[in-house]
Amino acid sequence: METIQTDVAIIGAGGAGLRAAIAVGETDPKLRIALISKVYPMRSHTCAAEGGAAGVIKPDDSLENHFNDTVGGGDWLCDQDAVDYLVQEAPRELIQLEHWGCPWSREPNGSVAVRPFGGMIKQRTWFAADKSGFHILHTLFQTSLKFPSIQRFDEYYVTDLIVDDGRCQGLTAIEMRSGQMRQFQARAVIIAGGGAGRMFPFTTNGAIKTGDGMALAYRAGVALKDMEFVQYHPTGLPNTGTLLTEACRGEGGILLNKNGRRFLQDYGMGPETPVGKPQLKTMELGPRDRVSQAFWHEQKKGNMLPTQWGDCMLLDMRHLGEKAINERLPLVRDVTTSYLGVDPVTDPVPVRPVVHYMMGGIDTNIRAATPLAGLFAAGECACVSINGANRLGSNSLTEILVFGRRAGLSAAEYVRSGARPGNDAALAAKATAAQARIRARFEKTGGKESVAALRKEMMTTMERNAGIYRSGDGLSEACVKLGELRHRYAEVELTDKTNVYNTDLLQALELGSMLDCAEAVAASALARKESRGAHQRLDFVERDDKSFLRHSLAYYHPTDPPRVEYRDVVITKSQPGVRDYSGDHQ
Amino acid sequence: MSERLVEVEVLRYNPETDSEPHFQRYSVSCEEEWVVLDALNHVKETIDPTLSYRWSCHMAVCGSCGMMINGEPKLACKAFLRNYEGVIRVEPLAHFPIERDLVTVIDDFVSKLARVKPYLIPKEDKPLSAGEYRQTPAQLKKYKQYTLCINCMLCYSACPEYGLIPKYIGPAALSLAHRYNADSRDGGREERAQEVAATEGVWDCSFVGACSEVCPEHVDPASAIQQEKIANMVDWYKEHLMPGGAK
User: Fold this and answer.
1) Same domain, B29 and B130
2) Could you tell me the pLDDT band of residue B47, with boundaries at 50, 70 and 90?
3) What is the distance in angstroms between the Cα of A557 and the nearest Cα belonging to chain B?
4) B147 and B239 assigned to the same domain
5) Are A535 and A466 in contact (CB under 8 A)?
6) At which of B104, B129, B159 does a domain end?
7) Alpha-carbon distance A137 to A332, whole Å?
8) Which residue of B has its CA nearest to A209?
9) Residues of A in contact with B17 (CB under 8 A)
10) Domain range A426-568, CATH class
11) I need a labelling partner for A400 at 20 to 30 A (CA). Which of A11, A309, A581, A584 fits?
12) Residues of A marked as catalytic
């Protein structure tokens, strides 16, 4: 097997992976960087983020405000030292992006403009119209081309981490073009593989978001933290699940039930604010978990609009006017018009909550380090945790920058501190074992299961039992079902047994990642007998700080269900309180 | 939901098993609102798991799913079935080598993109502690549309020059060079000129404008290239015809 020697191997070339690569390159141009991704960098799902990135920049705002919004928004499950680091570093990182050319939207005087976002008490979301993630991704990708030390391996799918001597020392990957396996021998590895929304049938996530990075760490013995917290974005297109950014409401859009009532006022987010004059941190600018949960209740009451794609609420932006919609929300207008045939200038848009983001992920600390020496992680695949039980909109683009950079710095520091040379023979043997595992899957005959069928069963299970509201019975059922699916997965036989760009094999491997992640979600959700943030239990409706002001840690087992343990949340200055999104208190 | 039976004819090519490309026809039961990508996904899931193509976002922003649809370069996620009658023919993007089925080899573009230095080369250095560069909305507007390129390659497929002269740097890479040249914060035009103002740069463009017609993001590469031609011409006159070759 061909072996590639490198200093830092980075898995994933979206926002976090690119930012990490640049950080390593800037720290020490002599360090060799292998940037490995199953897609070309510009295809990464960072490109689909719309609304913007939060960072304190305006004189009326403060780091303390950003901290409090984030910690309260996360229902106090955030680690507060990590949130402190995030809010402190955010402005610097966003200015850095500006210096690299990011086309942020501007004020008339030439300074960077900010817009309101859900759950934030001040306007602090930097934006580039409604293609903020796209511009961040392309700015980072294009900037990365300046660094000769960054060697890209585009369209390589990573199958396994190589762990020896208690340290992560590389990985194996399939080069899609040839179907050949390669061993990467690395002194440090950073995972920046993104989320896993594709476990669910209705999601804003692109096809590539299959939890591969999470599964790699998980199988190598690193816990997946807080996996029960799955964010539903309130406003997805009902047919395709395409995201309509929260900025629709930040700009003044309102949410209506079928009777034309702005129903959020009936769920602790009132009183009603004047149409077209959005007030921060209340009504339509409440946090995503609360808004999605309010939808669920209204649906139960029969107040939602039945459509061929299920019950919908209405997102009304007509009062914003054509000019504002074209300038501030051009993508939204394009998407609703072409995919749904509804022009937001003239009609309210039917929308429904859609799976959007994983708050949980690979257990990392404030230095972006996992408990496994030599392994770091950043971005949606990681859980630091700055998002706690519910992420605030526009914190994730900030997170990929701040912690992407941090992962790069930590990995460079680790490498330069002189990790012992690896045992080449032992590493090669592990790579060969990984290759044998893939080959067995590739060559398997007589299997009676198909990727498409298993994937569908997984998605149905997740949607039915791990959605906005959950119950012990439903989650138990999901755990049993996912265990069964994981067992049946061993019986998958590929139809395509050729080497070049084999997407049948790729999808089989992605399904394996998703099944592992799904099991961690279900087991952690079943074990958390309380309701907090995005995890709502019909059988345990209250938040229980006495028992569950703790992070869940799901540990992999090859044949049994995951083992779930707990770790205390880091609290430095904000004691758990009441999340108040009524307009009254402000 | 009304359904419609759609005949999709897809170019297949597997370098390991096929001596040359051939078409394969699938009958797909499609929903009226579907795009061509949905039909391909349906084929992949229910009829033929060996069909290979790239896709991810399904919202015309990741740029993965460019292909020829009835002979025109399109994003499969934005090619609505309702706009097509009869058999829909799907082929890999023209002017690129086929890797397999609808997957093309885009190494050429990737290396050309790097050559034009598509990143900010600051006119003046400014430490991060001094905050952002000021840029008015009017200055932003001068280059904003050229930032919207999703690297989907449709313009290369449509460009007759690129088909004839593979060395031509091509519409997307030149537009991105122009994007930085036109940015008020940038001072790197001279550095980029080596590639952009070369024969294989803007001067190979014969201004057919096909690139701008097919661009799904309305970047208008043709206008970017013309603006670069004019700027380069002015540079040339300044250098050669002005007294003292003043810049």
Assistant:
1) no
2) very high
3) 30
4) yes
5) no
6) B104
7) 19
8) B56
9) 498
10) mainly alpha
11) A581
12) 233, 249
